[in-house]
Specification:
Largest sheet: 5 strands, antiparallel
Order of helices and strands: EEEEHHHEEEE
Oligomer: single chain
Length: about 190
């Protein structure tokens, strides 16, 4: 988010696929989206890398996603901020516009190698954004999010702040304590 966006403001959305790379379980799709105003200014830019899973590929195959090296990263100290209990009906409703049945139909989820439907990654990003907005609306935000593993539609999620500066947010699955996604807040200003 480059500048504030008012509720009800008219914006146009444009986007494009910028890369498609093969992976062990399907294709990795990189997209770039821009929200623009009638005057041509662009207050919001989003880049997204997602897996388009192929159900014909082995469900147990390791994902060969392009990734940054984690070998030099120290494990940050985590401070619990909040817990969020996912509910199947709310997870399905959240993703209804995407028309991706992996979020709402147990049989479709099984076809892709999951025991039950998975929550859309943007649900946990929404919880992170709510944390960032706790003191009021944001004027600008530059944040990178890395989705590491699925969240199931009935998981308890735990939002943690990592490191001393609190500029890293980490979402864990409550059942096993595994990281589902991480966010680094590069720049944020409040209104």
């Amino acid at each position: 988010q480059r500048e504030p966006i008012r509720l009800g403001e008219t914006l146009s959305l444009s986007g494009s696929v910028t890369a498609i790379e093969p992976g062990a379980r399907g294709e990795f799709i990189t997209c770039r989206f821009e929200m623009s105003r009638p005057d041509g200014s662009v207050p919001l830019v989003l880049e997204r890398l997602s897996l388009r899973a192929d159900p014909t590929k082995q469900s147990g195959a390791a994902v060969s996603k392009p990734r940054r090296s984690d070998s030099n990263r120290a494990t940050p100290r985590l401070a619990l901020l909040r817990r969020h209990q996912l509910e199947p009906d709310k997870v399905a409703q959240f993703s209804i516009e995407a028309e991706n049945l992996i979020h709402s139909d147990p049989e479709v989820a099984r076809q892709f190698g999951f025991d039950k439907p998975i929550a859309g990654g943007l649900m946990s990003v929404r919880y992170m954004m709510a944390h960032l907005w706790r003191k009021g609306p944001l004027a600008t935000l530059r944040m990178s999010v890395r989705f590491r593993r699925p969240m199931f539609w009935d998981d308890e999620l735990q939002l943690h702040a990592a490191g001393e500066d609190g500029q890293q947010l980490v979402m864990l699955r409550g059942a096993d304590g595994k990281v589902v996604n991480e966010a680094t807040v590069h720049d944020v200003t409040s209104l």
